[in-house]
Amino acid sequence: MKSNRSTQEPRWVRYGLTTIGLGFLFFFLGLPLVAVFVEALAQGVPVYVEALREPETRSAIGLTVGIALAVLPFNIVFGVAAAWAIAKFDFRGKSLLITLIDLPFAVSPVVAGLIFILLFGAQGTFGPWLAEHDLKIVFAVPGMILATMFITFPFIARELIPLMQSQGKEEEEAAVSLGASGWQMFWRVTLPNIKWGLLYGVILSNARAMGEFGAVSVVSGHIRGETNTLPLHVEILYNEYNAIGAFAAASILALLALVTLVAKTIVEWRMKKETEMLNTVLAPEKTQ
Amino acid sequence: MASKSQRVLPGFGLALGYTLVYLSLLILLPLGGMVLRTAELGFGQVMDIALSERSLAAFRVTFGASLLAAMINAFFGLIVAWVLVRYPFPGKRFVDALVDLPFALPTAVAGITLATLYAGNGWLGRYIEPLGFKVAYTPWGIVVALTFITLPFVVRTLQPVIEDIEIEVEEAAASLGASRWLTFRRIIFPAISPALLTGFALAFARAVGEYGSVIFIAGNLPLISEITPLLIISKLEQYDVLGATSLAVVMLALSFILLLCVNVLQWWTANRHKNAEPLEVAAGRAGGAQ
Question: What is the secondary structure of A170-205 as a DSSP string?
């Protein structure tokens, strides 16, 4: 850090602010994170492992992973398509489109679940038609996938739009003018350029998909062993005063959160390194 | 130039078409359908539901707790962001990565953990409750949960802005005789206040809709510690779909009005900032005022 005394706060201010800031983070982040694992292991490792091996917990893990995997391709295709149109072309209403993409961030998860009940529930718009054809969307897995798609809708697009805007379109234009087809250009030029940003978006959207509670809770119908994701299972166990079981399931989700943070940090570091490399490669050319 | 390159690169029609269709089917039509549903009731009846004693109390609790949580985060978030950018300390990269924990940790996990920590026999509750201050199962529990959930917003919007402050401007202010506190008030704070406001607004908007973490720690007593999202769900569970929809639409409208206000405010600060005097002049003025 710059040790210029004129732009340094007095030592007591620096130490004071650092203590306040770190203390705040300790009480609000560190302590809860530690508490999850301490509570899960409160009665020893065997009880913890036993709690995790319960069939309902295992089926909840399976459903959580399944829904996250089902949502991912939709988010990737939409994210890339939206970013391609917005970052590489000019058209009217672009800023309105960007605002609309952010819309799910402003909607409460509970409302996100409710809108699908209104469409596909028994008294919903398509309710009678679905009942006639013996199809079930709400209070079943398809509804939970839809609600998760709604909640995670903006994540990948939001990462890719600024990234692709900053990269410009010269490289793609060069590829096309050299005779590359649209798909060749995409696979050989665009995708390698955006791969870290895409991965970053996937990590964020995946963490939200696996952890989503409110929206999924509204459309799930709480059928044990069938429409119970891991976060919903945590709630059921906790309300049954099965603290060990609840915190054991919660510890899996907390581990997932830690993996997410590590992966995110690594990708951030790679992206930073790549931009730095690009800058050093480009710098000598500029001086010529 | 723009129109020429539009012809060079392929896939515009396909990409934009897909974006619009997917956006409409998944987001716009379902949300629009919900708003249309309230038309069945009529404006008067929607307002009756939204202005009932229980709904009003829920709105008060939801928006009050969210405002308080966003204010706590604005204050401590500014300190955390400042410390993370400016001061060296061991384990800084670890702490920096940990700030994103609330985005990665599922809200239900946060909810049961905070409830356990602040309960009467919990690690924190056992020291707080003898002081006559109950957190768990009171409205204060809601504030704690919302503070946790929205913690990263202010820190993450402020960090890049603080990094971008040119140290030369601060040096100029100091060499002109401004104290450190005066420099902060007149130079640094005006430069970071739009970002602080954005972070505050994002935190507030997220807090208003939060459900998962709050229900475990709130106690959920109607009129006292019941938040609007929970009231929507309990109406839904009593098959009062129209009541739930009315509340949801009012809540949606309030969030949009808030976001609009924030956008206008941001646009206004950005424009004022653009037309303002160069920072060097401001630095001189800050020094002269000493």
Answer: HHHHHHHHTT--HHHHIIIIIHHHHHHHHHHHHHHH
The CA distance from A231 to A123, in Å, is 28
Per-residue pLDDT tens for A84-98?
A: 999 999 999 998 898
To the nearest whole Å, the CA of A44 is away from the closest chain B CA by 18
Digit-coded pLDDT (tens) for A92-145: 999 889 888 988 988 999 999 999 999 999 888 898 999 999 999 999 999 999
What whole-number distance in Å separates Cα of residue B151 and Cα of residue B210? 13
Taking only residues 170 to 229 of chain A, the set having a beta carbon closer than 8 angstroms to any beta carbon of chain B reads 172-173, 176-177, 182, 185-186, 204, 207-208, 210-214, 217-218
Nearest Cα residue to B99 out of A239, A21, A85: A21
In A96-178, where do the E strands start and end? none
Taking only the tens place, the pLDDT of each residue in A240-254 is 999 999 999 999 999
Compute CA B108 distance to the chain's CA centroid, rounded to the nearest angstrom.
19
Closest alpha carbon to A79 in B272, B127, B282, B18: B18
The complex scores an ipTM of 0.90
Contacts of A36 in chain B (CB under 8 A): 109, 113
* Cα–Cα dist A84/A97, whole Å: 13
Judged by CB atoms within 8 Å, which residues 72-131 of A form the interface with B? 74, 77-78, 81-82, 84-86, 88-91, 97, 100-101, 103-111, 114-119, 121, 123, 125
- Sequence-distant (6+) residues with CB within 8 A of B283 are B169, B170, B172, B173, B176, B178, B183, B187
Quick check: A20 contacting B, CB < 8 Å?
yes
Beta-carbon contacts of residue B93 (< 8 Å; ≥ 6 apart): A265
Nearest CA in chain A to B242: A118
* Exposure string for A140-176, b = 16+ CB within 10 A, e = fewer: bbbbbbbbbbbbbbbbbbbbbbebbeebebeebbebb
Minimal C-alpha gap between A16 and chain B (Å): 10
CB B42 within 8 A of CB A98: no
CA atoms within 13 A on the CB side of B265: 15
Question: Phi first, then psi: what are they for B249, rounded to 5°?
Answer: -65, -40
